[in-house]
Amino acid sequence: MNDLTGITDFGLSWLDASGPHSEIVLSTRVRLARNLQGYAFGSRARVNDRKAVLERVREAATEVEMLNGFALFELQALEPRTRRILLERHLASRELVGENGTGAPSSAAVVASAADPIGVMVNEEDHLRLQGLLSGLRLRDAWQLVDRLDEELGTRLPYAYHSEFGYLTSCPTNAGTGLRASVFMHLPGLVLTKEIGKVLQGLSQVGLTFRGLYGEGSEVVGNFFQISNQTTLGKSEEDLIDHLEKIVQQVIQYEQHARHILMRDASSVTEDKIWRAYGLLRYARSLAFEEVMNLLSGVRLGVSMKLLPGLSVYTLNKIMIFTQAAHLEQAAGRELPAAESDAHRAAFVRRIFATEGDVSPDSDSDAGNTSEGTTK
Amino acid sequence: MNDLTGITDFGLSWLDASGPHSEIVLSTRVRLARNLQGYAFGSRARVNDRKAVLERVREAATEVEMLNGFALFELQALEPRTRRILLERHLASRELVGENGTGAPSSAAVVASAADPIGVMVNEEDHLRLQGLLSGLRLRDAWQLVDRLDEELGTRLPYAYHSEFGYLTSCPTNAGTGLRASVFMHLPGLVLTKEIGKVLQGLSQVGLTFRGLYGEGSEVVGNFFQISNQTTLGKSEEDLIDHLEKIVQQVIQYEQHARHILMRDASSVTEDKIWRAYGLLRYARSLAFEEVMNLLSGVRLGVSMKLLPGLSVYTLNKIMIFTQAAHLEQAAGRELPAAESDAHRAAFVRRIFATEGDVSPDSDSDAGNTSEGTTK
Fold it and tell me: Which DSSP string corresponds to A240-253?
């Protein structure tokens, strides 16, 4: 039950950076919260409720075309490392893998499609959390994928639905549509020009919110922000998606403008920052994950500014995923204490840059190159 | 009068790192303070005294075999940049070039041999400061060079000498032998193992002292220390030299031991530090001089530990000299404001490493390399 080959693609297909605006928007995620009638919700659900929910989902999934050949992982049956890998690929939430130290909750599971970038978390905060993940900014596409899955599952499962409140959820903030659409953005321009505070404040005024790398309560590192809708009630799914799309398009424009300002007013400082980040990633022997994220932020900016020829966003996306602790342990085939993990992380980065990101220190022509230099 | 070709060698020949212990001891310098009878000393010397001293030295120099073909630079006649180059090569002191903002003192001059790494500062704190500079730890050789020059000049100039006090000097701390022998050492091991404080304290207990890069009152950067005798009186020149030699040999042993400890107890941390320093030097677009010194310290440690194959101490020595501000301006053929200077400095470092220090990020085999790494 620790074989992840069935889900190789889901959780990773966004890495190819094939979607629109993928230099600024890494990925788009849409999730729907659903619960089943006749079983207690959330923290009130007893072991039997949870067990029954899981069995009903398993049964329904076998009949759903989009889930043809799906894999189902019960989290309690997985090795801790495998659970953490699901978390690192965002296939499972921190709650589902029991990151708080209590261990995975009973009958918690992940259903992963063999074909599409969709899946279902079972017995998380809600009975079902349907989700879809695409590269770049593709809110409508992600919504349609998840909507189709929702329809197929909905004909086979008795969703708890109230004519006035819509879909009922464990936490009222998710009721109504049960939809959360989020866009994972890289905003170094806004951070470096110190405009980010204003932008984030603006988001909250239009019903949106932001989070860090691992969702709710996680820290923002490397200038990567998850921007999502705050409210789920009183608007249609399409309206929520369209609204988020409109705002994200605006944030993209702000970010592009900020990058333009940076290159106009602080190009030397910015270029220096970018090349230093690359030099450190290229040569360091020990790297903590957070430092990698911060350095990747600089390098990613450099790629989008065409300063680092031959380096692709795909390579940088892979580094983000595969330098996470559990992925490094999986590659090493054993547990790695922190110091060793940092060494393996640095080695992974060097190796991947050696084959797909070997940028010469002199790939640009800056002012300094025009001097002749006196050597004896 | 701004052509420095006559002194290309003096001030630079030590760069070749040919001397003993040149991985720890960059260079050895011996200087003798001398004054002429019949002319006021130091701050009491009037313009006429200074002028007469310079003329007497010029005349004597033409008759001295060791100074055959010498160049004589009057500092007031030099362009400011050329004066600073003399300072950066340690051919002139800060006082002689008027670094305090008052400009070069009247009749201040530098006499530089065309052949040997010897020279004379004229009208510095003393009428004459004879000096010799060699690569590595070569105290006896440097002393003999300067001693010969002293004898040759002494037969032609009326040195102020007192049978009881020895050579008379402007400042009593230099009286007696007038000798200051100093050894320019790189001591990163002692700094990183935090043993340096004890060592420096020990020096003061045996009549030695330490200074930074540009002599008295200058800061220590990059773990480079100038260690020299404090007292000049009451001992023969040979005794002073032998004593310094003995202590320096001890410091070398301490440093080697500290490096051994570092590699035994903190090899990962130390290697990471070394490779990061190299990566930053290799890729940065802007480098302040002090940062270069600090990074060079790491890289130099790496070279001595055989971690950076193909990189030589000679290359690192050249970087130390040619990335100083006036040298960069000379290479650019114009004045460089600070930001531009930092850009030229970084470009110089990249250029020199491209041709004589291109070390691959994977030149070693560390633990991290043994993991396989999963890439999609």
Answer: HHHHHHHHHHHHHH
